[in-house]
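Journal club side-thread
Mid-discussion, someone asked how the predicted structure for our own chain would compare to the paper's figures. Pasting it here so we can look after the session.
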Amino acid sequence: MVNNTAGTQHTIAGIDLGDTELAATVCTALADVEKLLGRVTEDLDTLLQHPAPHRTETGGVRFRPLFTLLAGQFGPWSADPAVLSAAAVAELVHLATLYHGDVRDQAPEHRAASSTTLHRGNDIAILTGDYLSAHASRLAATLGPKATRIVAETFAAVVTGQVREKRSAQSPNTVEHYLQVVAEKTGSSIGACCRLGGMFSGASHDHVELLARFGAAAGTAVQISEDIVSTSSVSGRYGTDLRKLMHTLPMVYALREEGATGAELRELLIRPVESGAEVEEALELLSRSRGMASAKEVLRAYADVADAELSALPCGFATDALRRFVRYFVERVE
């Protein structure tokens, strides 16, 4: 999970936090969160006779716990066990949605839960997601009623976004619709992470609200960045999205274009694509459009909103780290 090497002690999984001491603190906390996830899911290991589901996630940093832990730096109790529990809750909710998403999308090749879905079947994947959701709720309950409500509301927002996304296959995609889905699916999740981290570290009410607004904007930026990356490759989720008529932001913009490129895309994507050749054709058409550039403009706009919220928070290493974190998602697609 944590990729710190000699000379790069201020980085986590390639993301520069800007300060060696902060990175070390966060690395230690992430390891503690990992242990907590292991304890929470150890009973499931026995039931499935399979490695713990949280360990099957794609490598790299756990973004939700990292946002939670960094937000926890704004209060006097950054090392409070409640901050670690909040980070674990955020990850359990996320993993639960991944398992359910595997079944919904029928595309295990790009998901963290791939081994369970592919080798154990949809029923086990659904039950695993339910199990993780139940444990997230149980762990949230130890944090008190306010945390339980925040987690429940976040889960509801994520599911609402998923339903809205599924419905988009039967109705025209618009930029407004896409952004609403992303705000619900990812913005709400990262916003909750930052709110919980601030709350349980003892940050002031005003700072908690700023962190929550920052997280909502940052989460939307993260998802747009992920969608731009996926749209740049024929493999993985991009092909799945096209087959399900769920278009990423670059594609939504490209489909709106006047002229030959937009017309060809609309003709190609009037129905779900059926072959890799059609996915390749769509990708080639997209490369000739302004869709990618337009999506990057929106990404930068959300990053600017997140930056503005950070500017109202106290200056310090944690603020700088969150700013660097968001810029990472902008720079990776430029």
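Post-session note: The chain has a mean pLDDT of 83.
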